[in-house]
Specification:
Layout lengths: L2 H17 L30 H9 L3 H12 L9 H14 L3 H17 L3 H15 L5 E2 L10 E2 L6 H24 L5 H21 L3 H35 L11 H28 L6 H18 L38
Antiparallel strand pairs: 1-2
Helix pairs in contact: 2-3, 3-4, 4-5, 5-6, 6-8, 7-8, 7-9, 8-9, 8-10, 9-10, 9-11, 10-11
Length: 348
Amino acid sequence: MSSRHVCAIFLAGAALIAATPPPQATPGRGPTTTAPAATAPARPKIPADTAEIQQAIDRGEYASAVSGISRLLAPSHPVDYDRHLLLMLRAECELQLKQTTQSISTLEGIRKVSHENAVIHDEYEALAMIFLIHKSPALTYTPKSGASRIPISILERTRRKELYNDLFTDEFAIVQKLSRDAAFDKKLDPVVAVCDQLLDVQSAEYVATGAIGKSRGLAVQMLGSARIAFSTLLRNYDAQVDQIASSRPGRGPFRGVNQGQSKTLNEIVYNCNLIADLIRRLRILADQPEALSRMLAYSEGLKQNAELLLAGNTIEPLGPLTEEDTGTGTTVNPGRGRGRAGRGVIAR
């Protein structure tokens, strides 16, 4: 083969190579060059003790803090931490995560245990937070009095004390008006309304100020005004019980009560129980543990007589309710209300 033929073949091969397109990369095959995968952000470390939990909360890592709290509260955990503190931190985290139902449930559990253990300070703390959540639609509280009426998010932990102060100021004015109305009413409903709200107001005052002077002073006033309503009702109930007792035959098969008398006696039993409960609640709210002692005993004796009549038994009349029975049973001293909350059991 001549050199001319060799050169022609070489040139033809070079042209063919130049005309061939480069191979395309097939997905999943062959050596392809790709950018390195993005590194996933590290998950927050689960806190190992209360200090780390508080740090996680301060960083806004609420879910991580809840996980750490659950570990510390586990029965198998070797260290016995402050259970009340951990549960209050859990309630805070759940609130920050906008899990209000879970937060209230946690707080109700704290309140129940504190109530059973007669740790009134811890109970106030849980009650006040529940009260604030209930009064804050969309987790926002709008003050009703004072210079500023600007809504405040209850998730702002740095303003929580300010919020409790506003809450107490607003709600105390409401319950104060209710107590004034109750003073001129001889029924139980106004007293019940005051007692139902005064406990929440007292808890807000304690968390806001560290004392319960105003709310306790109001409870002392309620003891005096409620005494009038209680004594009027108890005198009426006693007269009804004596009338039913004297209308029955002393012997024979028909010693029971008729349908109308049964209804009256059941109402008396219910209201005597309610009066006794209200006395006990006001005693605690007013920090007057012996107040209305004679009236309380009279109410319980009257209830017992009504129950005996319902069962077809005879009774021993209690006699009239005297002025001594309707007294407070102790020296009422409003000045005590300026102090701090003592230890005791709050009655709902």
